[in-house]
């Protein structure tokens, strides 16, 4: 007969917080930045090699993108994101919210026509997309009524030549880095950063 195991109950005073209070995305960014060199997560690169990213490195990415979004006039705008989950996807998502914008995560399995129609209906201002969507938004760049900025994460030369509406994500990182190093804080204390709940194209989004 196996010996019964009992969980140890630890009583914690009600006025003691185990975690720092986070009221909004602004607080979230400030809070995770404090963890510095601790590993935030591990990810695969394109060659399937494992890499670590620390809280400090991730926060730096978010801050640089936030600074660039603000400098490019995208503060408070509606920005859609589509593609495989990656460091760039997550950093873009948090940066959009950090500048008081509306983040619109899109299901990567959606047909381009569906994406077009949805972004038309919500008056999306910009689109961040992964390499798997290179070349698929050429018509949108020419015809879409509200999309003014297209941000590829890993563009080809052909993609860059397709439209003057394209700004590579790497360019935003670089320009934002210069702004942050000069003392510019891209974060906004929003009213607040917002998102369209769920992933557009999945059951239950809205």
Give your account of this protein's structure:
The protein contains 7 helices and 7 strands; from the N terminus they run αββαβαβαβαβααβ. By secondary structure, the protein is of the alpha/beta class. A hairpin with a 5-residue loop joins strand 1 and strand 2. Helix 2 crosses helix 7 (169-181). The longest helix is centred in the N-terminal third of the chain and has 17 residues, at 55-71. The model has no long low-confidence stretch (mean pLDDT 84).
List keywords for this structure.
206 residues, alpha/beta, 5-stranded parallel beta sheet, two-stranded antiparallel sheet
- State the end-to-end CA separation: 53 Å
Give the biggest beta sheet.
5 strands, parallel
H and E order: HEEHEHEHEHEHHE
Derived from helix and strand composition plus strand pairing, the structural class reads alpha/beta
What percent of residues are in strands? Answer: 15-25%
Number of strands: 7
Give the overall silhouette: globular
Provide the residue-averaged pLDDT. 84
Number of helices: 7
Helical amount: 25-40%
Q: Which regions are unreliable across 5 or more consecutive residues at pLDDT < 50? A: none
